From TrEMBL:
It is an enzyme of class 5 (isomerase). This is UDP-N-acetylglucosamine 2-epimerase (non-hydrolyzing). Keywords: Isomerase. Its EC number is 5.1.3.14. Belongs to the UDP-N-acetylglucosamine 2-epimerase family. It catalyses: UDP-N-acetyl-alpha-D-glucosamine = UDP-N-acetyl-alpha-D-mannosamine. Gene3D superfamilies: Glycogen Phosphorylase B. GO terms for molecular function: UDP-N-acetylglucosamine 2-epimerase activity. It comes from Emcibacter nanhaiensis. CDD domains: GTB_UDP-GlcNAc_2-Epimerase.
Length: 381
């Protein structure tokens, strides 16, 4: 059998796997390349069903060793196992995505073994190392270790240029989350069997570390007040496995007739639920990208976002943790029809669903030593 160029993709969390699947599947179709997918074990229950749903089969699955808790334990554990895997497999490129511990460990293990790192979703910044923490730190560190940087938007590209990364190492691709969400929607979506979906509903997700404690309590109280005074709407809250957040949300939001708490949903259930939502209230990064592509307005429950393009375009509004602002943003959506339509129809800035193809084509050019044309418009998002 002819030897092809080996590329290793590392994913550890639900969003990373969702966002790397389009790259992996596209690479699989390229004869000059053999992609290998490694799951690092960072998320367990959330990624269980995902490979099948996303039509990917991981070649490697790292084990979560006992006693490796917290970010440091996670990093040590992944680094130790990846170092061995890289030596045995000998890939020519390692692909990491976004800003998780798995992405940082993947980049670090490759970089220290002198294997070029390709960063998908490069150039996102809040410029506040504490928000989101530790993701902002991780993305900045990965940019320093990366050789090739795939940016979702021109703004992300401009950011990396300002950080002295050479223009020849940066490519504009769009975000692979848009490929994933459009693909999932086109594949006979499974309508969620819930009474709640027969009325207009606002979908809520909340899980970030920065919102825990007092901020989270403030947000859920504002939400409960709003739900009590808007009986014509349902509020569907999908819970994250984090037990502290789960307990708090159940305690403060349970027992209110038009609020429905659901366990974390499989991606094929979640995508149609997003599409049919009247609006979304969320602190998630990926949802800020996906919902605008589905024409659904998002109120972002953070005071800073690394996805400012969505705010500038008008599809995202930042409400922070201020109960009055959350209340007023929700009221505007419900009571001001023009504002609602403007948000639904604002241009979605994170790509058109071609990022997986663009990235895989570039990676093939890179590993096969082809000359990479500058400003190649045939590969623009
Ligand atoms: C704020 C922030 O720093 N977030 C980072 C975080 O993800 P992020 O904040 O996006 O992580 P989430 O856990 O919200 O996951 C979002 C993904 O999960 C899906 N979903 C959500 C709820 C549910 O019940 N079921 C379901 O399938 C959504 O459609 C979306 O595709 O890691 C990502 C991957 O590196 C990065 O791109 C993000 O920048």
């Amino acid at each position: 059998m002819q030897e092809t160029h080996r590329i290793l993709l590392c994913a550890g969390t639900r969003p990373e796997l969702i966002k790397l699947a389009p790259v992996y599947r596209n690479l699989r179709d390229r004869p000059a390349v053999t992609p290998f997918l490694c799951l690092t074990g960072q998320h367990d229950s959330l990624v269980q069903n995902l490979p099948r749903v996303l039509d990917v089969t991981p070649e490697f699955v790292l084990t979560r060793e006992a006693g490796t808790s917290g970010q440091l334990g996670l990093l040590q554990n992944i680094l130790r196992q990846l170092a061995i895997l890289l030596e045995q497999l000998g890939p020519e490129l390692v692909v990491v995505q976004g800003d998780t511990a798995s992405a940082l460990a993947g980049a670090m293990a490759a970089c220290l073994q002198d294997i070029p790192v390709c960063h998908v979703e490069a150039g996102l910044r809040t410029r506040d190392l504490l928000s989101p923490f530790p993701e902002e730190l991780y993305r900045q560190l990965i940019s320093r270790m990366g050789t090739w940087h795939f940016c979702p938007t021109p703004e992300n590209r401009a950011t990396l240029l300002r950080e002295d990364i050479s223009s020849g190492q940066i490519f504009l691709s769009g975000n692979t989350s848009i490929d994933a969400v459009l693909d999932m929607l086109s594949r006979s979506p499974r309508p969620l069997e819930t009474k709640a979906v027969s009325r207009p509903y606002i979908l809520v997700t909340l899980h970030r570390r920065e919102v825990q404690g007092e901020k989270l309590i403030t947000i859920v109280r504002a939400l409960r007040n709003f739900a009590e005074s808007h009986a014509g709407y349902d509020f569907i809250v999908t819970l994250h496995p984090n037990p502290a957040i789960r307990r708090l949300l159940s305690h403060h939001l349970g027992g209110q007739g038009n609020i429905r708490l659901l366990p974390p949903l499989d991606y094929p259930d979640f995508v149609p639920l997003m599409k049919k939502a009247f609006a979304i209230l969320s602190d998630s990064g990926g949802i800020q990208e996906e919902a605008p592509a589905l024409d659904v307005p998002v109120i972002v429950l953070r005071d800073k976002t690394e996805r400012q393009e969505g705010v500038a375009s008008g599809c995202l509004r930042l409400a922070g943790y201020d109960p009055e602002k959350i209340f007023s943003e929700l009221s505007l959506l419900i009571h001001d029809r023009d504002h609602y339509i403007d948000m639904c129809t604002a241009p979605a800035p994170f790509g058109e669903g071609r990022a997986g193809r663009i990235i895989s084509a570039r990676l093939e050019q890179i590993v096969t030593g082809q000359k990479i044309p500058h400003d190649d418009s045939s590969l623009s998002p």
